[in-house]
Structure prediction request, 698 residues.
Amino acid sequence: MSRFSFFSTGITFGLLATLLLSACQSPGSGPQGASSGAPADSLSWAQIQQAARGATVEMMMWQGDPQINRFMKRYVKPALQERYGLELKLLPGQGSQITTLLLNEKQAGRRESEIDMMWINGETFYQLQRMDALYGPFLGRLPHARYLDLENPYIGQDFQRPIEGMEAPWGNVQLTVIYDSLRTPQPPKDLAALSTYLKKHPGRFTIPNEFTGMTLLKSWMIGMAPDSALYGAFDEKLYRRYRDSLFTWIQAHRRYFWQEGATFPQRLAGLHRLFAQGEVDFTFSNNDAEVENKIYQNTFPASARAYVYRSGTIKNSHYLGIVRWARDPLASMVVINFLLSPEAQIEKRKPRVWGDGSVLSSRKLPDSARKAMQKAAQRRYAPARDSLTPYARQELAPAYMTRLYEDFQKMIVEGDA
Amino acid sequence: MPKRAAAILYLLLAVLPLSAGLLLALLVSLGLAGFLGTGFTLDYWSALLGRWAFWQSLGFSFYIAAVGTLLALVLALFFTIAQRQRLQRRAFHTFLYLPLALPTLVMALYAYYLLSPTGWLSRLSMALGWTSGAADFPRLVQDAGGVAILVVHTLMSTFFFTVYLGQLWPKENLDALLQTGRNLGASFGQLLRRVVLPTLLKRAAPVILLYFVFALGSYEIPLLLGRSHPQMLSVYAMNLLDSYQLETIPQAYGLAALYTLFMALLLFLLSARTRLKKKPV
Prediction:
C-alpha cells in the first residue's frame, strides 16, 4: 500500500466511523436520564445532607482573584469538610468556557457532567437556560434561602429575568471606576467631564474588551437613554438608537484613548496591569470593593480609590447554578446552602477577605447576624455601599450584552480608528 | 507484522481522531450537528468568510509566520556560517538550548516586560535621557507590525534553526565541499550562493515549513503581545468560540475545519514533492 493510499484509506475509515457515531446520536439531543424538574422533592433537608456526606462536588469558577481563591480554599472547603463531610473541588473556568463545556457534554450525550455546580452571571444563566443545562428549581429547598432578599430586583432578577429558583444569588456588586487619587485628584464624574479629561490627557484611558467593559458601555447607554427606557425585554429599535449614540461618542474620542484607540485590552487583568504600571489613569471593576482588595494585595497603590459616574453604573448579582446532569446535585445543594448562610456571607463581605456584597436581607436576619453583617461591611478605601446605591442601575436584558459585544467588535475594535 | 501493527496504531491514534474532529467541525459549521444544528445552512460559513476581520486575521498570521521564520533563518544561517566553531563549544550549546526549553508563554511574558512602554528597555532609555517617559518610547508591544510577536518567534526559532543547521553541516560534508570550492578558486560569495545555501536550505526545507506551520498556529504569544485587531488565526478562533453569542461557535468550528484542511493540503503537497524527488530519473 503506498503512503498516499494508506493516508486516504485512513481518512475514509475515520470519516465513516464518525458518521456511524453521529448517526447513533441525533444532533442536539441532551444527556439521557437527567431530570430538570423539582429535584429531591421527596427528601427532607436532613436526608439531603445525609445523602451528601462523603460526596465530592466539582465547582467551576473564575479563579482570577487570589483573595477569592483564598476564601474558597481556606474557609469554604474546610468548613464543608468539617460540617457536612463533603469535599469541594475547584476547577478554573467562567462564562463561555462553562457554556462550551456543557454544550459539548450535551452534544456528546454524557450522563454525568465533569462539573456539578458553577459560579455564573446573567449572560451565562441565559445561555444555559437556552441549552436546558440547569438543574432545578432548587433554591426553595435550601433552608438559608429564607434569608435571601429576593424582592430586591438587583438580586431576584438576573439580567431582567426572574431567577425562578434555577440559580442561587451569591453576591451583589456595583460597577466602579478605579483611579489614583494622587495622580488624578479630580476624576471625571460624567461623560462630558470625561470628554474634557481625555482631550487634556490623551492616551490615559481605555475600555476593556470583555465583560466589565461591556458592563461599562451598558451603564453609559442607560445614562444616555431617558429613565428606564432600556429596561424590560430587548428592543431592537431602542438598542440601535442608543448604541449609535454611544458609538458616536466613542468614535469621536477614541483618538484620545490609550494607543489612540487602535487596540483595547482583551482582559480586565491587562487593564489592571496598565493602571498599576501607570500607563492609564483608570481601570474598572464589577466588584465595588475590589479597589480595597487590590490595595491589600499591594497590586494598586494605597492612594487608589473608586467611584461611580453620576449617570449611574450597573449593579448586579452573581449566582450559583447546578448542572442538570450533575453527578451529585444534592451535595451541590448542600454546598450552596452553606454559601448562603449568614456566617459565610458575613465572612465573604469582609473587605480583607473578599468584600463582596451580601444577598441576604438585613430585615430577615437574626439580630446578632445583622450586627455582624454591618460590621463586616466597613471599608477603608472602597466607597461605602450606601453612597453608591443612588447611582445603581439595573442590568439590561441579555441580548443587549451579546449584541453590544458583537457590535463593539465589528464597529469599534475591527473598525477604523 | 510489526508494520501492520504500526499502521493500525497510526490509524487509531492519528488518522481517526483527526478525521473525526474534522468531520464534526464541518457538520457543526454546516448546521448539521451540535446544539444549534437545525438543518443544513451556509449561514455560519457566510458569516465567517464575509467578515473582513477574518481575512485580515489570515493575512496577519501569514505575515507573522513568514517574517518570523525568515528572520530566524537568516540569523541562524549567519550563526552557523560565521560562528560554527564557537557554537560547537559546550557552554554555547547549553545557551542555545535554553530558549527552546522555556514555555512560549514565559517567553512572551519576558518580551512584555522587556518591550512594553513601562518595561525595562523603556526605563533604561529614560534613565539614559533618551526618552522622557513611557509615552515617548516606541510602541513595540500590541503594535500594528506585531514587533514583539516577531521578536519572540525569532528568538525561539533562531536557536532551533542554529542547532539544526549546525547538525546538518557535517552530515552534508560541507567542510570538504568548501575546501574543494576554494581550491577551484571560488570566492566567499560564490561558495555561499552555490554551495552552502542550496545544500542547507534544501535539506532543511521540510523543517522550515513545519516551523512555519507551528508559527502560523501560535496562540499564547499573540494573545499576550498582539492587538485586539487584527488577531492571529488561533486567537481569532478562540474568541469566536469564547463569545457571548452561542451563534459564533459554529463559525469557530468552520475556521478549525478550514485550517485543518489547509494544513492537510500543505503537508500532502510537501510529501508529494518529496516522493517525486526521490523517484529515480
Q: What stands out?
A: Chain A touches chain B through 48 residues (CB under 8 Å). The CA atoms of residues 58 and 114 of chain A lie 8 Å apart.
